[in-house]
Amino acid sequence: METKSMTTDVENAVRVDPFGIPLHPPPTTDPLDPLNWSRKRKALILFIVCFSSFLSVFLTGTPIASFSLLEEQFDASYSEVNWTLAIPSLGLGTGALLLSKLADTWGRRPVLISTCAFTMLATGCTTVKSFSYEAYMAFRFLQGLGAGPCTVIGFGIIRDISWEHERGFNVGLWVLSVDTGGIAGALLGGFTAMVDQYWAGYLVVIAYGLLLLLEVSLLPETLYPRELVLEAAAAGRPLDSIRRTTMIDVWLAAFIEPWFINYWVESVGYTWSFVTQGLITLLVIPSYYMVQNLGRQMDKTMEIR
User: CA dihedral defined by 142, 146, 151, 155, rounded to 10 degrees?
Assistant: First the structure.
């Protein structure tokens, strides 16, 4: 009876948005469908998504005001310390490129929770006083690597919980959170620098600890195989056999699939903007590093002559 009701509602019911246009994606009566959740629950999910993206940019800017302290700590030049700002950006692009597809395989929730915990651990390691400059740079990269996937997964979650007419507003809030993350990081980093350079890391660890608590306790899984559900409902088949939270896949295939036209491109089309960003970052930063070193060698050659 429940399956028949589901089929009838999908095929015959016409629900419209506030502008009188039929809702898209097609509505279902499945209680596990994120689109059928309450507004309060969706708003909480959106807040967590925005907060995670906010922190991914926030962590890159917090040490800026502490550059002079880092120069003293590592006995490094300003140019060398300045690389600690670029390296996490490289990690952000790399993490978004390599790890975000796992959210379409294993689910949004486990990937977000695991990467959040990883970022918090890597950030904690940046505050170890005995670490060298190279070790600090390595953990700054790992910071970005762990924080990167949430920028892409956030778009996927927004798509999961939003009707088409709601996505523009929700994506706008997401973009606003990303834009303010860098400003807030640099601003609050100025206050932490008044104490010492380690409090920039402590602040990020505290923020990610709060985010981890929110994700573990309040963030539900939103991955929903909508096309399979609609096909089963239209055919009158029971939905019990359809896993609503994940689709079985091999990691290698999950990584390769985005390079072909398939369902994933339709699900997370925004990913390509971050793929492009990641590729540009991977090319530009090493090139700049090579040019910088080449410039130093040329200066030394000129001095000798």
Answer: 160
Q: Which two tokens stand for residue 234?
A: 């239209």
Would you tell me how many other CB atoms lie within 10 Å of the CB of residue 15?
Answer: 10
Residues 6+ apart with CB under 8 A from 272: 265
Residue 193: count other Cβ atoms within 10 Å of its Cβ: 20
In a 13 Å sphere around the CA of 58, the CA atoms on its Cβ side amount to: 24
Beta bridge partners of 22: 16
CA distances from 122 to 66, 126, 141, 282 (A): 18, 7, 9, 21
Q: Residue 248: is its pLDDT beyond 60? A: no
Radius of gyration of the chain (CA): 23
Tell me the per-residue pLDDT of 250-273, one tens digit each, with 9 for 90 and over: 343 444 444 333 444 444 444 555
Two tokens at 175? 């973009």
Q: Residue 249: pLDDT band by 50, 70, 90 thresholds? A: very low
Residue found under tokens 């929770």: 113
Comparing CA positions, the residue from 44, 50, 69, 56 lying closest to residue 127 is: 69
For residues 98 and 188, what is the distance between their CA atoms, to the nearest angstrom? 30
pTM for the whole structure: 0.74
Long-range (24+ apart) CB contacts under 8 A made by 28-35 are 28/226, 28/229, 28/230, 28/233, 29/5, 30/6, 30/229, 30/239, 30/244, 32/224, 32/244, 33/224, 33/226, 33/229, 34/160, 34/161, 34/220, 34/222, 34/224, 35/160, 35/161, 35/162, 35/163
Give the residue from 92, 112, 85 showing the smallest Cα distance to 211: 112
